[in-house]
Specification:
329 residues, Rossmann fold, 2 domains, 6-stranded antiparallel beta sheet
């Protein structure tokens, strides 16, 4: 088994999972959590595909055929209740990837775990993460990679993620350093805020679109692909990302909120900020923030490395060069 399993709001031990699979396999359809299971020629995977596996997300597969679905049905909950429960289920161990924005700050405050922030010298995220960690009384480690470290990381990242395009590579490289720190310090779980932008309307382009509902649906459908990307770099360091906002309860509560209430009066992720405002300082809950690849400075450093290697206008060309040199692709 990879990951963890819950049943009706209670974490299951590995022994309990084995007993259910051997003696009461019908209960598997109610499993929640983040997992990929394999037993007796069968496999199963969590509904949103947070944990990568050959089995399709939410499927129960036996002898190569889908015989059922994983469809947990937790009790109805408000958005606040859902987020609090989702974080609590994941907070027995690990570290929080804290950028200082509302998504990760709310998780950090609820989890009460040590935090790590990634940011090159002079970038935005470390200062904001430090302010948040100080407000919550939580320890914070800062990883500040220089050009050589980023270039070395890129050699691994472009070979690990499914599609090493510039955007995915920049995001994955930022997460690479968080995962490396977590692995070096004995953590196997990294709580992170992925999914909040897609569920609650966090991208700047949502402010001007005329098709907000359709855009949110399209972007949410891409979350399992993003999870595969992120888990690929975490696996390089023996860790995994755990995503409270992709908990079944949170997804259900988010989808019940009309699109026009998620982006309103020029404010993105409005419902999430309302919940966060009850737990974290207003200046964090309601403040906008750059995406991690920009706030961390990693994107800018990748651009600089590309120019230094003769690719003044094509980061993709630079990434392709690394891929060819390292993997012959």
């Amino acid at each position: 088994m990879t990951g963890w399993v819950e049943l009706d709001g209670r974490r299951l031990s590995s022994g309990e999972i084995r007993e259910i699979l051997d003696e009461r396999p019908h209960i598997l359809s109610r499993f929640g959590g983040e997992f990929a299971l394999a037993w007796n020629g069968c496999a199963a995977r969590d509904p949103l595909g947070v944990i990568p596996a050959a089995c399709p997300p939410g499927s129960i597969l036996c002898d190569g055929k889908i015989i059922g679905r994983v469809a947990p049905d937790p009790a109805p909950a408000t958005l606040e209740e859902a987020i609090v429960t989702a974080v609590a289920l994941r907070s027995d161990e690990g570290v929080v990837a804290l950028s200082g924005g509302v998504d990760s700050a709310l998780i950090a405050r609820l989890a009460g775990l040590p935090c790590v922030v990634v940011g090159t010298e002079g970038s935005h995220d470390p200062a904001r993460a430090k302010a948040a960690a100080r407000a919550f009384g939580l320890p914070l480690a800062t990883v500040s990679p220089g050009p050589e470290a980023v270039e070395e990381a890129l050699r691994e990242v472009v070979g690990a993620i499914p599609d090493p395009n510039p955007l995915d590579t920049a995001i994955a490289t930022t997460l690479y350093f968080a995962a490396a720190w977590a692995g070096e310090h004995g953590h196997r779980r990294i709580l992170a805020g992925q999914g909040a932008d897609e569920l609650f309307g966090g991208y700047a382009r949502y402010l001007t679109t005329g098709t907000l509902e359709e855009d949110l649906e399209r972007d949410a459908a891409d979350l399992s692909r993003q999870a595969e990307r992120d888990q690929s770099v975490a696996a390089l360091h023996g860790t995994a990302f755990s995503l409270p906002y992709l908990d079944t309860r949170v997804v259900r509560a988010a989808r019940a909120i009309p699109a026009h209430k998620k982006v309103r009066a020029g404010v993105r992720k409005y419902p999430l900020r309302q919940v966060a405002g009850r737990y974290i300082p207003a200046e964090i809950a309601w403040r906008g923030k750059k995406a991690m690849q920009y706030g961390s400075g990693i994107w800018r450093m990748i651009q600089q490395l590309a120019r230094q290697n003769g690719y003044k206008k094509s980061v993709q060309g630079y990434l392709n060069q690394i891929r060819r040199a390292e993997y012959g692709i």
